[in-house]
Amino acid sequence: MRRIPLIPYLLILPGLVFLAAFTHFPALLAFWQSLHSTPRGRRPATWTGADNYAAMLADPVLMKVLWNSAIYAAATIPASIVLAFVMALWVNGRMPGRAFVRLAYFTPTILPMVAAANIWLFFYTPGFGLLDQVLSGLFGLPSTNWLGSDRSALWAVIVVAVWKEAGFFMIFYLAGFQAVPPALAEAARIEGCGRWTYVRRVLIPLVAPTTLFIAVNALINAFRVVDHIFIMTLGGPNNATNLLLFHIWETGFKYWDTAQASTLTILLLVILAAVAAVQFRLLERRTYYR
Amino acid sequence: MTDRTPPIETIGAWLLAVLWLMPILFAFWAAIHPPEYLTRFSLFAPITTENFERAFAAAPFGRYMLNTAMLVSGILAAQFVLCTLAAYAFARWTFPGAGILFALVLVQLMVAPEVLIVQNYATVSRLGLVDSLAGIAIPYVASAFGIFLLRQTFRQVPKELEEAAVIEGAGPLVVLWRIYVPLARPVYVAYGLVSVSFHWNNFLWPLIVTSSVTTRPVTVGLQVFASVDQGIDWAVISAAALATSAPLLIAFLLFQRAFVQSFMRAGIR
Q1: Domains of chain B and any CATH numbers
Q2: Among A196, A236, B177, B235, which residue carries the largest CB count within 10 Å?
Q3: Is B10's CB within 8 Å of A95's CB?
Q4: How many angstroms separate the CA of residue A151 from the nearest CA in chain B?
Q5: Helix, strand or coil for residue A40?
Q6: Do A118 and B238 touch (CB under 8 A)?
Q7: Contact, B217 vs B71, CB < 8 A?
Q8: What CATH number belongs to A65-289?
Q9: Do the beta carbons of residue A286 and residue A269 sit within 8 Å?
Q10: Complex ipTM, two decimals?
Q11: pLDDT, tens digit, for every residue of B92-140?
């Protein structure tokens, strides 16, 4: 019998201990806690089966949160993908001031989300903010409380997310364009096909893997990044900007309802797992084409 | 394709660039001028550092910066050690269970520690690490992404180099330290930049774990400052927001190419 080497296990052990302690174990613990009541004072947690799930699904706030998260994802993902593509297309070609333009697109990515959110909070301020000044100064529109109204708050937050992300995704498209054979552009030019046709028929299909990669990342970010909510709206007004992870924080650390927060965590994990599964399927199918 | 961008699109590109910088420029304007110029744009507005001075006087941003610096360097050092060891094992050994163990590692790519805040907070508090830098760092010291990236890199190291060293009597750790690590230096730089900027910017988990001046990183410090300490003094808040991002922004402006390439390398898996 071949001897099983001991060394690789020893090498992996330290890393895996930390991974298990802060990823695998808490995920299982969240499931366990979601099946129990929240321990309060002297009262220990008791088995409640699926009660927490029933309560979660009956909660109108959660429905609002899921709807917000869906709109947030459905708006930020395509918007940042399209902008990233256009930005990359522009700075990929030669033009005056190209380095500056590229820098301008990428800079928001480097900024901490908390700082960016504060800057945007100022930008949106009714009366003082630049947005209001431009709109009332140039077009004579009345002052608007963008973050204070149910109808515009979520969109105001979405704009910040797109602004922060698009430049980051741009660099992946720039990398993707490097891999497109120059002969194709040459051929397109000889055939006399216009720039738009070249982009639509050649470039977009060829960078499809990049688009998939960006889409998955944007989707994960849509569920994972809620820093700006803390600064700009705290989920308000009337839960208009409450997103799933923020709702988990609120339930767990404001109301200290561990059981309900765990149930919501499981919901988030299921969503992330579904994203992973879809990504896996798409990647697999793509290899058939190769 | 290094074609010339058509003139119309060049104008579009410039407009978008100006639009993209607008919020930052506006905050910058507010930060370097006296408050009465907040909404009055004039070329002759006097320039002042007063807003920065007031921000630093009102909240211990120096201390927050120090906390963040210690935090990101501590995380990075731990990540380098843990990820290097694990990546080496996955890249160079075949052993029963390797596939399953690697799959377990990759789970963290999807489920980041900040998703499991409730349970991780309980763990950290049981370890007695609430409100400490170690408490902020500990969920992040083992990084699936780091292990994955280094494993890919180590796999490309030619076997012959290793065999030569082994013949000369070098043990596995010596081989790792003398051959693999030096050859992967660019990847360490790339990973380092990504990790530092991620943890410099990280907010939610540090917000939950910290509660005092001596542990708060700048992001949490800025949030506390903007929402609690301060009324609504936009000039000072803008100064604080820019000051807390300045180290990263300056580093980025100086090493733009390295940053962009690192993010790119890190993203493409």
Answers
A1: 54-267 (1.10.3720.10)
A2: B235
A3: yes
A4: 22
A5: strand
A6: yes
A7: yes
A8: 1.10.3720.10
A9: no
A10: 0.87
A11: 888 899 999 999 998 898 888 889 999 999 999 999 999 999 999 999 9
